[in-house]
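Supplementary Data S3. Sequence and structure tokens for construct A.
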Amino acid sequence: MTSPHDNPEPVQTTGPPRWVKIAAVVTVAVIALVVVALLVGGGDHGPSRHGIGSTAENVATH
């Protein structure tokens, strides 16, 4: 007699492996967090954020 476990059918996998899916989800989540942080944090970046910028006008007048 033949049992159903003697000759199992080959497992067909489609798509990328699980680690690739997890890495993609983590990457998308990190990118989304960075974008949200930049949008919520405002556009207050640059040299003027840390004090008077050293432009040609500031150097000439001071």
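Construct B, processed identically:
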Amino acid sequence: MVNAFNRVYAVYQSKKVNMRVAAYVVAIERLKDAMQARGWVG
């Protein structure tokens, strides 16, 4: 839980967006990584 918050907070600070948008960014990055691991995306 703490690790998830830290990832969101890092995006929040680096991209200058609100916490909700930062959480979406982290979620989309996780989806991208999972799709690449499964070979669905180049």
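The chain has a mean pLDDT of 97. Helices lie at 2-15, 19-37.
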